[in-house]
# Entry
Amino acid sequence: MNTESSTLTIISKISGKSEAFLLQNLSSKGLWDSFLHIDLVLSLEETFKIRFDRDDVAEMTTPEKVLRLIESKLKSDGR
Amino acid sequence: MKHSIHRQGLTYSLRPVTLIDSAAIVQLRNPTSERNCFINPISLDTKLQDEWLLSYFEREGDYYFAIVNNQTDETEGFIGIYNVNNAAAEWGRWILREGSLAASESVDLLYKIAFNDLNLNEIYSRTLESNKSVINFHDRLVGCRYQKIEKHVEINGIFYDAIEHRLSKVQFLKDVQPKLESQATRLLTRSMSATFKGLKLHHIGVACNEIEADFVTFRIMGYEREGLSFADPIQGIKGMFISHPTQPRIELLENLPSRGTLNRFLENHNKLYHLGFEVSNIDAALEALTAFRARILSPPQYSSYFNSNICFLVMSNRLIIELIESPGL
# Structure
């Protein structure tokens, strides 16, 4: 599973924004609201079998930060 | 106003705000925080917040709530209903701690209070137009925008336009409640997995007419006594643990004289009648399971055998489980 591609697919599906748009706006905040933020957290946890703590959830404000966070979590899990 | 409305959700609950909440309100609404640029600034002085709350307690038609995490009992935010008039009211003062996942359930609970406890027919919110994230939240839940109110709010000398969303009770029940409840259910499943991380099967409970007679059968398979049998007068049973090098531990149980705790299991030949699990926090596990319609057969109480608290529950599928607190898990 390609982490970046899978993550962008999930963000795209939840936010309703195309992957191309997300790639052009990796550092943009406000691409999803707080309702979708919960959906995003739950979907990413289910897909990657990881667990976000409160600081992680607060940190996930842009597509890029979400990507880096997941890569970091998978790396610390030895995956 | 001083009120007593509580609403319990799956992961979060709403309770009335009290003076104890002053410091938390000030901390969350800290005007120096970038994320609070869309809300009315308040003083960092807790005493002034106390005064505001004291005047709020006297104000009719104003219901201010703390958003509390059911598992940690921590306050994660605040939300309110005010300006109640002709079966309609405004809601707002909504703020959550960074990293909180209480957004949807806190709003669901607020709507339930508005439409069920307060018997309102309609509720509305007014959000600064520049607060895109919250506007999107309302757009998603409520659908169409009701109106734009120009120069609705003045913050630090600047006037801001607001967008008003209105939600009727009928629309809530039909369209909004299912979305919010669905997400709340997913969140509960998530929190359950945290509660039961490290869950460990401790033993299988076997109902016996006579422990020693059943033990003979298990000895054939290589089981040995772990220790002496013990009596539990509260449960009305006598028990003995037996173990095997590679197989699950088993607890053999028989009724104490003149007691009938195990009768229905014995009469139905239901020998394997309970599962015992070790959990790190028995209260959290109990709360999580009762949220799933488990009924408590015996509340947590100290067991000298385990040197910790144990309790028994019957699950909605009639499976009996025993929880054994093992903080080291």
About this structure: Chain A has a mean pLDDT of 92. The helical segments of chain A are 3-15, 19-24, 34-48, 54-59, 63-76.
